[in-house]
Amino acid sequence: MADLTGQLIVVTGANSGVGFSLSRMLLDAGAHVIMVCRSRERGEKALEALGGSPRPGRDELEIADISDPGSVRDLATRLQRFDGIAALVNNAGVWRNSLERTAGGFEVTMATNHLGHFLLTRLLMDQLASGGNRIVNVSSEAHRSGKLARAPLRDVMTGAAWKGGLQAYSDSKQANVMFTSELVRRFGDEGLIANSVHPGVLATRIWNKNPGPLTLFMRLFKLIMKSPDVGGRAVLRLLSDPDLADVTNTYFKVEDASPAQPTALDADLARDLWELSERLTE
What we know:
Layout: E1 8-12, H1 17-28, E2 32-37, H2 40-50, E3 58-63, H3 69-78, E4 87-90, H4 108-123, H5 125-130, E5 134-138, H6 153-158, H7 165-187, E6 193-198, H8 213-221, H9 228-240, E7 251-253, E8 256-257, H10 267-280
Parallel strand pairs: 1-2, 1-4, 2-3, 4-5, 5-6, 6-7
Antiparallel strand pairs: 7-8
Helix pairs in contact: 1-9, 3-4, 4-7, 7-10
């Protein structure tokens, strides 16, 4: 079993799916887990479920809407009570069948899956540097269908270039991989370790919303999907396996390193994405 005794690890989207499974595994490994959830009700239920048996680690609940920059800033301010953060797992994710925008005018999928995590990561950089300096961005094999270069990036971010829910999801997952690479290019010399991971095609709550034929199919397909524990173990390995301690800027398909889609490795596009994301989250 992994030993993460006393390490402070922040997990977004921690009340269900991969985030919940990972939180349980981190607690079993002795970590101090900050579970970030959008819903207080679901977050408290997750805490209660994790408290069902004694575990070496301890957990705390933080409420934040990752799609809302103001909520993310408030979260980061509250997390200033900790001197150092060993690892940040950017896991929260959504997809939508129809075009929805946040109050700030951003397409909801991109705002949640990329922009919110981009902002949270930047706000926690100092604490990560003084902790463990490790980041895991939960991406997806859907990144291979991402087409961020198909339109001006701002149009993708705002939904002006909307091409359907699956395309928006794929674009956001491609952004996760690009963000990972750009993090390492900018901060790797300072010891930052950042990787992205496809946790598997899993039976999680992400398939529970959005009425339509695809959602119905995915709900039925959930019957043969793998447990979220598969994804939880994949992320846990990136946080705890000594053999991966120095592995960085790598895309993992579950537990195996895998070449990312070439566009996701476009350094110029990744730089442009970073710079635009900075401006949009100022």
